[in-house]
Amino acid sequence: MAEEKKRTRRANGESAIYLGKDGRWHARVPMGYKDDGSPYRRHLTRPTRKELVDEVRRLEKQRDEGSARQPGKPWTVAKWLEHWVENIAKPVVSENTYAGYEVAVRVHLVPGIGRHRIDRLEPEHLESLYRRMQSAGSKAGTAHQAHRTARTALGEAVRRGHAAKNAAALAKPPRMEEDETEVEPYSVDEVQSLLIEVNKRRNSARWMLALALGLRQGETLGLRWSDVDLDNEYLKLRRNRLRPKYEHGCGEAAPCGRKAGYCPARVQVRRETKNTKSRAGRRAVPLPGPLVVMLRSHREAQARERAAAGNLWAESEYVFTKPLGGPLSPNTDYHDWKRLLEEARVRNGRLHDARHTAGTVLMLLGVPDRVIDQIMGWEPGGAARMRARYLHVTDPMLKEAARKIERAIWGAPENLAVDKDQDNEA
What's the CA gap between 282 and 276, in Å, rounded? Predict the structure, then answer.
């Protein structure tokens, strides 16, 4: 026992274990270095040597794997999330992705779980938050967005050694309801009803690009005439239109009292477009003949609008503009879509449902998967997953499959008629 009490010199990097004067076992575990370069050791104490040895081994394993908590005051979840979204995520993700992260952090995660220490956060804390969100009226999809944001932010905390585990990776988000995940593409009859109404409207080609080719909203609104080759009947997609973001321009001395977006002197702080990053997103898309005709007509109508507006015209080179030029707002575009559905007497649906419709029509027409992927802008690695999500089996496709089964097993319809006549004669 006397030998156990005696301290011994340890090699660099080894943990020191000794029995203290208080009767408890103590350990000093080397964990690396502090920001100022000085050694950092964690102090542990347990009533028995065996318990202490077990804890030392666990901590050494975390240290060697890079998952042990770093020196300094532990992060709270709120401080880490706010630091992560502004200093780590914002510089490297797109404006739209950052906007989604920022809302999830500010509105849901910080108020809900922000007071916990990041190294003591448990999956149950997140699952309780998701239940509270739904009880307060949030959809399951909103809880999923908060869950994805937490998983990404906490994953970065684990990589940097601020927490030993990612609680969000272990938590179970709420089940998505069918009405939130199931998409019913528009039928050919509904598309034709929309086409009739589209031809009466300004910027008519904008909607046919969505319904016929499945262009995303940002891709369509970011399209410029230099991207369109009507002679060779194709267009190039290179950029996306971003949702505007404004700050007050009225000044603190005479505040307008309105939200920033409605301030008379508002200042736009987000760029209009961003270049498409992925190779699949930067693509050439073929134009059907009727769409070429619509775009030619649209260009002529835009030239007449420019001439009529004179000095009031805001030059921008965008294919689809406001009546006095300048890029269309995604919010205005969304409300135009809703009015189009109402006036065409077609069931209500998301603007993104037009993209599902276009993909399904391409599949219905027997277009090869490789060509569908090119038109829709899907990455090769994830194309199969995207096809499963966007391409829907419709009733006509099921009926055609039934007819093929009929012909394969029972033969052609005329053969069936001959067989019936022979049975009657017998």
Answer: 6
13 — alpha (psi -120 to 50), left (phi > 0) or beta?
A: left
How far is Cα 354 from Cα 321, in angstroms, rounded to an integer? 20
| pLDDT tens digits, 231-240 | 999 899 988 8
**Per-residue pLDDT, 398:** 64
Give the residue with greater pLDDT, 113 vs 69: 113
Mean of all residue pLDDT scores within the chain = 84
Q: Sign of the CA dihedral 82, 86, 90, 95?
A: positive
Q: Is-contact 344 338, C-beta < 8 A?
A: no
Contact 319, 166 (CB under 8 A): no
| Beta-carbon contacts of residue 262 (< 8 Å; ≥ 6 apart) | 256
Q: Could you tell me whether strands 39-46 and 246-247 are parallel, antiparallel, or unpaired per DSSP bridges?
A: unpaired
Under 8 Å CB-to-CB from 165, ≥6 apart: which residues?
Answer: 67, 158
Q: What are phi and psi of 119, to 5 degrees?
A: -85, 0
Helix, strand or coil, per DSSP, at residue 33? strand
Q: What percent of the chain has pLDDT over 90?
A: 39
Indicate the pairing of strand 267-268 with strand 39-46.
Answer: unpaired
Closest CA to 55 of 66, 64, 43: 43
Q: Letter for the amino acid at 158?
A: V
C-alpha of 292 from chain center = 32
Q: What is the DSSP string of 187-219?
A: PHHHHHHHHHHHTTSTTHHHHHHHHHH---HHH
pTM: 0.64
Q: Are 265 and 248 in contact (CB under 8 A)?
A: yes
Can you tell me the distance from the alpha carbon of 87 to that of 156, in angstroms, rounded to the nearest whole number?
12
Task: Determine the Cα–Cα distance for residues 356 and 389; give it in Å rounded to an integer.
Answer: 9
Pick from 231, 237, 229, 232: nearest CA to 210? 237
- Per-residue tokens: 298: 């649209």
Contact (Cβ atoms closer than 8 angstroms) between residue 386 and residue 378: yes
* Residue 145, token pair as written in the block: 């967005």
Helices (H) and strands (E) counted in the chain, each on its own, are 19, 10
Span 99-114, pLDDT tens digits: 899 999 999 999 999 9
How far CA 234 is from CA of 13, 283, 288, in Å, comes to: 65, 10, 9
CA-closest candidate to residue 351, choices 217, 182, 150, 225: 217
Q: Which tokens in the block code for residue 15?
A: 């943990």
